[in-house]
Amino acid sequence: MSFVKKPSPSWSSWSYPIIAFVFNYILYKSFPAASSSDVIAALFTIPFIAIVSVILTFIHKRLKKGNHRTVFFQIFGSIFILLFSIGLFVSDEDNKPAFVIKRMRAIENGYVPISLNDYFLDRHPPNLEKIVAAEKKFYKQLTDTAYAIWVSSRKIDGRYIKTYGIMFTGNGDPITTNPNLKIEKKVKDGFNFIEIINNDTLRFTVNRHTENNIDTSTVYPNGPVLDAWVHQIERDNNVDNKFWAYGLFHYFL
Fold first, then answer.
1. DSSP SS3 for 46
2. Which residue of 56, 130, 212, 247 lies most exposed, with the fewest beta carbons within 10 A?
């Protein structure tokens, strides 16, 4: 009786492009890219990843044609495609997937205390994880539509000197996370908000129908001009509804 040795199971040589496509799809669906458009970011990276995956496919075919074992090459090629895709992922320097996961773990393990005011932080990295955690922790206290106030000084470029939130109750009265904010009586369809910051008076108006806008106010001719950026926030249209990684983070918190 003669026995015929069966060939060891082997992946298809075209598995590398498939792995690259599926993994990059998951990557761009899970984490925010640096560009405002994922399409623009993908145009810079996908051609390089496609070329590498085709090269791996060609090498795989050559090895298989020469009756060489391909199992180790399959493992190496697949891991290389994953690492290569992560390395080329277009994101902000401090918002690489590894950094995002690290910040998520720090919040999940309680290393980073979360307050209600974190929900109103600037909607950019590295604040996104705090925003999601605050939304989960204080969900019942949040209104469907709220307003983040981001205060900036024209003497300090590139960052906000203060952030806080304003929400409206069911009867239309405003509440704020800033204890130093003075609320004036209702004016027309809105309320005036006043705060003294470093001897400057910041004044702006918000109502329940306000969309994104900016109010500028200062009372001292030699003082810095303060800008109040009013940003509308919808509770069910947050970052955890846009990216899979943040959705999972919100679910498991």
1. helix
2. 212
**CB-based burial, 113-141: b 16+ in 10 Å, e otherwise:** ebeebbbbbbeebebbbbbbbbbbbeeee
Neighbouring C-beta atoms of residue 170, cutoff 10 Å: 6
CA 139 to chain centre: 19
204 by DSSP, 3-state: which? strand
- Residue 113 DSSP SS3: coil
Cα 185 to chain centroid, rounded: 37
**Those residues with Cβ within 8 angstroms of residue 85's Cβ, 6 or more apart along the chain or in another chain:** 20, 23, 24, 27, 45, 49
User: In a 3-state reduction of DSSP, which class is residue 227?
Assistant: strand
Locate tokens 């509440």: which residue? 175
Q: Is 116:134 a contact under the CB 8 Å cutoff? A: yes
The C-alpha atoms of residue 133 and residue 111 are separated, in whole angstroms, by 13
Bridge partners of residue 151, in order along the sequence: 162, 228
Place of tokens 């690492």: 83
Largest CA distance in the chain: 103
Average pLDDT in the chain: 83
Choose among 252, 201, 248, 241: nearest CA to 225. Answer: 201
Distance CA 250, CA 247 (A): 5
Contact 39, 98 (CB under 8 A): no
pTM score of the predicted model: 0.81
Residue showing tokens 């690489």: 96
